[in-house]
Specification:
The protein is of the alpha/beta class and 187 residues long. It has helices at residues 16-22, 54-70, 81-91, 112-119, 138-151, 165-176; strands at residues 5-8, 29-34, 43-47, 73-76, 97-99, 123-127, 154-157, 180-182. The protein has an 8-stranded mixed β-sheet, with helices on both faces.
């Protein structure tokens, strides 16, 4: 398996969209493991509040199945149980996924399905966090979700808890003028 490597803001693979949407707050260095060319694809962010009603979980699974067949490259943190199931669905396709954990990549345990997707050049693990950030926290998850939204061409949020972090992110992404939709309003 390839080692984790750093992408500085001068690296040709460093995504310009981070500077466009985050400005001065764009991370100077990213940690990457996997197929960097996935950053050149059209990226759809799939995010959600942690707690989802059952009808939204079902809608998110159906949406992930549709993305799987459409060949859309999806980016997300894939942390909550619902997001992890969507990741499982997406990784069962031949298409790319960009996984952004809410922590640094050093010492990250790679699941067998991640290893398989990495070896098939269908997965990129990408983090804006220093290697010393070895545990996900609510603050890091919030920063990660903003990072994911900045990298995406379109943002889909499965569920927004009123007054929560995802609602604040939705307002910010809407202010950017980036396409954004909510599955919980459609199901």
């Amino acid at each position: 398996m390839n080692p984790v490597h750093a992408l500085t803001c001068t690296d040709p693979h460093y995504p310009d969209r981070l500077r466009r949407w985050l400005g001065e707050a764009a991370p100077e260095t990213l940690s990457a493991l996997g197929h960097l060319d996935l950053l050149e694809h059209r990226l759809l962010a799939l995010l959600s509040s942690v707690h989802c009603p059952g009808r939204v979980v079902q809608a998110a699974y159906a949406f992930a199945q549709r993305l799987r067949y459409e060949g859309q490259t999806v980016i997300g943190g894939f942390h909550s149980p619902m997001e992890q199931e969507c990741l499982r669905i997406l990784l069962s396709s031949p298409h790319g996924v960009v996984l952004c954990p809410a922590r640094g990549l050093e010492d990250l345990r790679l699941r067998p399905e991640w290893r398989r997707a990495l070896s098939e050049q269908r997965l990129l693990l990408l983090s804006p966090f220093a290697p010393l950030c070895s545990r996900a926290t609510a603050q890091l998850a919030s920063e990660r979700n903003r990072f994911v939204a900045a990298l995406a061409d379109e943002v889909v949020i499965a569920h927004v808890t009123p007054g929560g972090q995802m609602e604040r992110l939705l307002r910010e992404v809407s202010a950017w003028g980036k396409p954004c939709r909510r599955l919980d309003l459609e199901s």
